Amino acid sequence: MSDRVVVVGDALVDEVDGAAHVGGAALNVAVGLARLGVPARLIAMVGDDDAGRLVREHCAAHGVELTATAAPRGTAVASAVRDGGTMRYEFNAAGTSRFVDLQPHAALLASAPLVVVSCLALEHEAQVAPLAAIERSHERLLLDPNARPAYLREPGARERFAAGLDLLASRALLVKLSDEDAELVYDEDASETASRWLDSGTRAVAITRGPQGARVVTARGWVDASVPALTDPIVDTIGAGDSVLASLAASVLAGDHAGGWAGPLERAMAVAAATTRSAGGLLQLPG
């Protein structure tokens, strides 16, 4: 078995206030794991273009091994607009037509101690199938839908995304879910979604609620954690959710969740709070 956690999902360049920043939810998780001392590999669609060069340089600088899959429309680029402390995104053609070809990389999925999925095109059966086939997925699969309206505008896309997400969630050790994800994908509260998933076989659901903190729900009950108060002001929320997933994945790899989710969730909230005090999506370690 490989010692590198495999992260599957998006890698892109964010254009914010006229500047280019390497990002993407999955890339942020992979880099976050590396910053937490966990060796990570990112499988993502990255083209041979200027944006792709930035992604490759960023991964190399943070010790993340990048496995780039075919990118017929180049590397995804997201134009971000600030709305208070929250960001809204518009994507180029590469971003909206995202697809990570996993078929050639089945061996990487099979050998990884954990497979962490974030912001993937779950509306495509061919995207979901290799992940649904992962052996011992209830021990190794972590999932964050990271649903975004710009990805689900085509007729039927939302319904297909919901079906793919439900399938993988039923096989997952942990699914991270925000209220926004549940509303966009299912038109329901995150607690309703979590209840359905637990009934279908999901081992744990981490519900994140921004400044209200987070809750991990299992068949045995739930634990809550608040966001620690820090003296420094919030700069932006980019990467906060990704830092939560990275921190929880690191805790799972260390086996810290075996005694309950309270400790891992508290650590994740501390990491998220630190991350919001710095511009961009790079995970920050608590002081």
List keywords for this structure.
four-stranded mixed sheet; nine-stranded mixed sheet; 37% helix; 23% strand; alpha/beta
Regarding quaternary structure, what we see is single chain
Class based on secondary structure composition and strand pairing: alpha/beta
Order of helices and strands: EEEHEHEEEHHEHHEHEHHEEEHH
* Total strand segments: 13
Characterize the biggest β-sheet. Answer: 9 strands, mixed
- Fraction of helical residues: 25-40%
On the 0-100 scale, what is the average pLDDT?
94
Number of helices: 11
> What proportion strand?
15-25%
Low-confidence stretches: none
Largest beta sheet: what is the strand line-up?
5-4-1-8-9-10-11-12-13
Distance between the termini: 34 Å
**Whole-angstrom Rg:** 17 Å
Overall geometry comes to globular
